[in-house]
Amino acid sequence: MEKAEQRDRERALIDRIQKGDADAYMDLVGEYRIRLFRKACSIVGEPEDAEDVLQDALVTAYRALPRFRGESGIYTWLYRIVVNKCRDFLRSRKSNPSDPVDPGQTVIMDDRINVEKNLELSDDAGYLIAKINELDDKYREILVNRYYDEMSYEEIADLIQVNIGTVKSRLFKARELLKRSIIRNGRGEEYFSF
User: Fold this and answer.
1) How far apart are CA 65 and CA 59, in angstroms?
2) Within this chain, do residues 157 and 132 fall inside the same structural domain, yes or no?
3) What is the domain range of residue 94?
4) C-alpha 164 chain-centroid distance
């Protein structure tokens, strides 16, 4: 779907929601729910917690929808709410010393793992995810946004409030850092098809 068509569709759904059509909200957020859940998992670490945070974020977004100005796409707006709710959740857990996730860190998890975590990542996928998680926040986040969350350069620029050139240069730097780290550990360049 073209960007203009997408925005028109979103605007029409928002108008329906504001007129009391609650089902339109599910249509609006439905296509983004899996991506938002994945993002929440990548931050809070546990699927059960991520689901709770996501539900809280979606309720917050529903209540805040009348204040949505449309300056960014609905996904970018929802993404920010989810990330902020995840950070709030982690801050509230910070006093628990057994918490393995640093609240300022984005950690990649693979959402193909079921909630019970019965499936294990392959060695290669686990290795690559670990290497990505070792990157500085600004580089890890840009890789996650581009390749894991499948965001466009424009969406990323809007999300982190930089120009598209900065997004491209950070993405280039992130790939180079990742490549050097993997090669330094004796792995080949089979990971660099992106």
Assistant:
1) 10
2) yes
3) 1-110
4) 18
